[in-house]
Write a structure and sequence with these properties.
By secondary structure, this protein is of the alpha/beta class. The protein is built from 6 helices and 5 strands, in the order βαβαβαβαβαα. The protein binds 4'-phosphopantetheine.
Length: 165
């Protein structure tokens, strides 16, 4: 049987403990997971696409079945290029559903051979998002446990850089 490769796309600005939980769960179902970081130059981000890729690579350093790349353009074109037909997305609360539903149906219209699979994180990660992590950190709050330790350090040094400029 050929290898089952899942593409896990997102902004990952930065990767959170919830994202990591989804990657780990996906490894239980797929042979390989490609974490695909959206490279969107016009989108305001804390970390550049290269920095986000580097952080995620470091988080999954010991896991040979996880690859990290950045992509631009349409997700479905990237999934085709990567030789996959499976996209993974995480679902937290009900409010995620409408956006995910729209994206999935649009992607299906563009590429009916590609399926999107939804996973739920462990309950302890339900409320975590990259946006709230950045907000809490920028206001001096403690983000320990919401992101991997090396990501928390990277957020802290990014904020310190900003203060210095
Ligand atoms: O982490 P995010 O920001 O919710 O991830 C969104 C992402 C990267 C999955 C989505 O914006 C995307 O796939 N962008 C690529 C462009 C694309 O294919 N758009 C059509 C989907 S409706």
């Amino acid at each position: 049987m050929s290898e089952r490769i899942a593409i896990y796309p997102g902004s990952f600005d930065p990767i959170t403990a919830g994202h990591c939980n989804i990657v780990e769960r996906s490894l239980g179902v797929f042979d390989k997971v490609v974490v695909a970081v959206l490279n969107h130059p016009s989108k305001r981000a804390m970390f550049s696409a290269e920095e986000r890729v580097d952080l995620i690579q470091r988080v999954f350093e010991g896991e040979a079945r996880v690859t990290v790349e950045s992509f631009g353009g349409l997700l479905v074109d990237y999934v085709d290029k990567r030789g996959s037909t499976s996209v993974i997305r995480g679902l937290r609360a009900v409010q995620d559903f409408e956006y995910e539903f729209q994206m999935t149906m649009m992607n299906r219209r563009l590429a009916p051979h590609i399926d999107t699979y939804f996973m739920m994180t462990d309950a302890e990660y339900f409320y975590i998002s990259s946006r709230t992590v950045k907000e809490v950190a920028s206001l001096g709050g403690d983000i320990t446990g919401t992101v991997p330790t090396l990501v928390a350090a990277a957020v802290a040094s990014k904020l310190a850089e900003g203060e210095g400029s």
